[in-house]
Amino acid sequence: MTETTANLMNGKCGAIQAKDIVSTFRVHFLAMCRLNTLPWKLLETELKQGRSSELIVDILNQTCLHKVCVQHPPSVKYRRLFLQELIKMHESTTAEPLDELYDALSEVLCLGKESIFYKSYFLPSGDTVSLTESQAVISEGTTGLVTWEAAMYLTEWALENPHLFSGTTLLELGSGVGLTGIALCRHCKPKKYVFSDFHPSVLQKLEANVELNSQDLPDVAVSVEELDWENVSEGRLRDIGADTVIAADVVYDPDIVDCLVSLLSRILRSSKDSSQPNVYIASTIRNPETYSFFKKKLTGAGVTHSIITGPTSEIFPYNRLSSIELIKLHL
Ligand SMILES: C[S@@+](CC[C@H](N)C(=O)[O-])C[C@H]1O[C@@H](n2cnc3c(N)ncnc32)[C@H](O)[C@@H]1O
What we know:
This protein is α/β, with parallel strands linked by helices. It has two domains: 3-109, no CATH class; 124-330, Vaccinia Virus protein VP39 (Rossmann fold, 3-Layer(aba) Sandwich), CATH 3.40.50. Helices cover 44% and strands 15% of the residues. It has a seven-stranded mixed sheet, with helices on both faces. Helix 9 (179-187) links the parallel strand 3 and strand 4 (192-197). It is elongated.
């Protein structure tokens, strides 16, 4: 845990922590994190110490008026609820109403419901990856239309270990909306990156997101491919020719464990230039039984694994208390 987060969790407030509060609001707001995960309590403490209007204007500038929000805004409903909460908090102090807040709210209230909105994720360089995602974790019959915590965990770890990916051909299984691949292509310099999934709506959103971020991926040969774990020929695997295969949050349904394990085992056996591909799987362990079942099936298929130490940086906004494991597979 970084000092910043530790300070925020301990509720220590002072000049430096006020800056941290503003940046925490920015990162969480632009990624459309649930509103109740934003540091409202700490903001309230700061406001009571008398820096009210200045701090609120800083937060407004770093959220609704931030250039990323102007270009790739979170949903209208999210912005409206956020501004209403900010106004409520500001007015719970004895401060005068702030015109800037009401101007921002009236602008949002004039907007109709949009068909597309964005979640934006800051990278360590300060750049952002903006993605179109769903609001609900399951929609259109799939879990693939939102970014999951294991994807953020895997991405943080990859950004700390770019040497493992530089110059390689990478295949990602079950890419979902594409955060991991886009961030990795931007910072780890792979030669080729194959995003894959099997659900039509996910593939459509994934393609749109890769396109949206394409000007930031100039030196990587990127493709988005339909690839169903149940139906991948040897020829297809050979054509892709991956040196490295990654996947995040693909172990969640016991019914798909068999075909996933069988594919992973075939990938490990499909050596390229006599070297075995590196295979990394990041999983949120929601149901320990499903995860043990996956590991048992790996063992049954002659595949061993080692647990990889996770990321030390805290780049993305997700619950650090979640149980997430990254493993590397071996024959
Ligand atoms: C929980 S989501 C994870 C998405 C993304 N990796 C992330 O962590 O944000 C699981 C993904 O696996 C994909 N998936 C499930 N079964 C699959 C199959 N048989 N073949 C290919 N992809 C599959 C889903 O479409 C979905 O995008």
